[in-house]
């Protein structure tokens, strides 16, 4: 009976021994399995990713670094993970270290020989440079804003110990504060001194002043009504700080409407006609003539003359001017301007009144003054629109000395006008 009890105990002990031995081998095979692996020619990061997909191996590596290393096609059967990793990393500057259940791929000189440990979180040993937008403005609603001209460097340092530690180092460059001055236009730097030229156009409002009144014919009237005047010109000169001097050459055309009305009367009287004549001789020897007369009434005849025309006087003008900027800013200026102009007649057209029917005749050159002098003054502004260009609107009042027609012609007409001028100044 005692012999029978020894055998079951021996059998139980043997079964326990086999169970423990097989469990350790199974666990060893679980943590260090033999694998079969193959991959085509690709970058090293793709090969390691395929290892993870095929066998779910935890491999930590820098994708940015390993994506630059290309390997040839590889194939093996029933090799351990360490052997496969050794084959894949052969010929590169990289090696691996197993930490717990994870394989860490790094350059050989950066591997740290530490005992196996459990890593608390995957580490990504990369250096990232973050560049925020330069001159970022926040917020605009406040009185004071902060402008950051900053380059932020974030460095991740890994240390392999029993627990992985991650340390962040932040470096901040210039930080300064300015006061918010409201909305402003970023005007470029302008050239506003030196030699310049200005093409321009002008429209004028004309008025006439008649010394001694208009010539009024008997039973008629003459009238002139200003129409308009225009000019095109070119300025040239020199500007220094606030003072501008220059010369202008322009063509100016003055137009006005000419109106004539004249009425003539003829008739309304009797015309005598002799029907017969006889004479009587007196004893004294004198002779008396006697006439038999008849009269005929001539009726009144009225003739009206009415004539309208548009007269034109054309001048070529040469003027000298000076201007002073009483307001001067980076992109805007306002100025006062004065000048003298010498006007030379270059053309005329239209009609003037005459003393005989039809009481009007074409204007002739000897009726118009060939040369006139004008004085003008006014205000203007200039807006910068480009590096060397200004847009210049101006308004002038111009007075022409003397009559437009000769003194021996009874048509005394003196001209005044408002000039509205627009120019474009270019600095050379």
Helix-strand blueprint:
Layout: H1 2-31, E1 34-39, E2 42-43, H2 44-55, E3 58-60, H3 63-66, E4 70-71, E5 74-80, H4 81-89, E6 94-99, E7 102-107, E8 127-130, E9 136-138, E10 144-148, E11 152-159, E12 165-171, E13 175-179, E14 194-209, E15 220-240, E16 243-266, E17 269-281, E18 287-298, E19 301-328, E20 332-349, E21 351-353, E22 360-362, E23 371-384, E24 389-400, E25 414-427
Explained architecture:
The protein is mostly beta strands and about 425 residues long. It contains four helices and 25 strands. It has helices at about 1-30, 45-55, 65, 80-90; strands at about 35-40, 40-45, 60, 70, 75-80, 95-100, 100-105, 125-130, 135-140, 145-150, 150-160, 165-170, 175-180, 195-210, 220-240, 245-265, 270-280, 285-300, 300-330, 330-350, 350-355, 360, 370-385, 390-400, 415-425. The protein has an eight-stranded antiparallel β-barrel. It is rod-shaped, with a radius of gyration of 57 Å.
Strand content: over 45%
How large is the radius of gyration? 57 Å
What class would the helix/strand composition place it in? mainly beta
- Mass-distribution shape: rod-shaped
Strand order of the largest sheet: 14-15-16-19-20-23-24-25
What is the helix fraction of residues, given as a range?
10-25%
Average pLDDT works out at 77
Strand runs, count? 25
Order of helices and strands: HEEHEHEEHEEEEEEEEEEEEEEEEEEEE
Treating each run of at least 4 consecutive H or I residues as one helix, how many helices?
4
What can be said about the biggest beta sheet?
8 strands, antiparallel, barrel
The N- to C-terminal Cα distance equals 131 Å
* Low-confidence parts: 22-30, 112-151, 153-166
């Amino acid at each position: 009976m005692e012999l029978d009890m020894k055998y079951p105990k021996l059998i139980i002990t043997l079964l326990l021994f086999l169970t423990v031995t097989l469990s350790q081998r199974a666990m060893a095979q679980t943590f260090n399995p033999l694998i079969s692996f193959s991959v085509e020619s690709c970058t090293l990061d793709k090969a390691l990713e395929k290892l993870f997909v095929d066998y779910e191996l935890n491999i930590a590596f820098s994708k940015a670094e390993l994506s630059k290393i290309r390997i040839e096609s590889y194939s093996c059967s029933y090799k351990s993970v360490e052997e496969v990793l050794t084959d894949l990393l052969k010929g590169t500057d990289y090696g691996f270290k197993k930490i717990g259940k994870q394989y860490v791929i790094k350059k050989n000189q950066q591997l740290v020989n530490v005992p196996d440990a459990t890593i608390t979180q995957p580490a990504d040993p990369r250096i990232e440079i973050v560049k925020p937008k330069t001159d970022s403005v926040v917020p605009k609603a406040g009185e004071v804003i902060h402008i950051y001209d900053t380059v932020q460097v974030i460095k991740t340092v890994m240390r392999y110990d029993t627990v992985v530690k991650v340390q962040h180092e932040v470096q901040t460059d210039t930080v300064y504060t300015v006061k918010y001055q409201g909305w402003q236009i970023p005007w470029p730097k302008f050239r506003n001194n030196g030699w310049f030229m200005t093409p321009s156009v002008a429209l004028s409002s004309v008025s006439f002043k008649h010394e001694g009144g208009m010539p009024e014919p008997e039973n008629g009237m003459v009238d002139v009504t200003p129409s308009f005047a225009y000019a095109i010109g070119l300025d040239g000169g020199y500007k220094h700080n606030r003072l501008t001097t220059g010369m202008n050459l322009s063509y100016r055309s003055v137009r006005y409407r000419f109106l004539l009305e004249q009425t003539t009367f003829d008739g309304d009287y009797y015309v005598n006609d002799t029907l017969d004549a006889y004479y009587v001789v007196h004893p004294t020897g004198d002779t008396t003539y006697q006439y038999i007369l008849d009269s005929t009434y001539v009726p009144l005849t009225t003739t009206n003359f009415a004539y309208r025309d548009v007269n034109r006087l054309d001048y070529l003008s040469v003027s000298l001017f000076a201007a002073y900027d009483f307001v001067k800013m980076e992109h805007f200026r306002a100025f006062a301007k004065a000048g003298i102009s010498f006007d030379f007649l270059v053309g005329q057209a239209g009609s003037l009144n005459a003393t005989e029917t039809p009481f009007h005749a074409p204007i002739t050159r000897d009726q118009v003054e060939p040369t006139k002098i004008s004085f003008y003054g006014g205000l203007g502004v200039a807006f910068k629109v480009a590096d060397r260009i200004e847009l210049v609107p101006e308004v002038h009042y111009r007075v022409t000395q003397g009559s437009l027609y000769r003194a021996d012609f009874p048509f005394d007409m003196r001209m005044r006008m408002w000039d509205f001028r627009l120019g474009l100044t270019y600095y050379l």
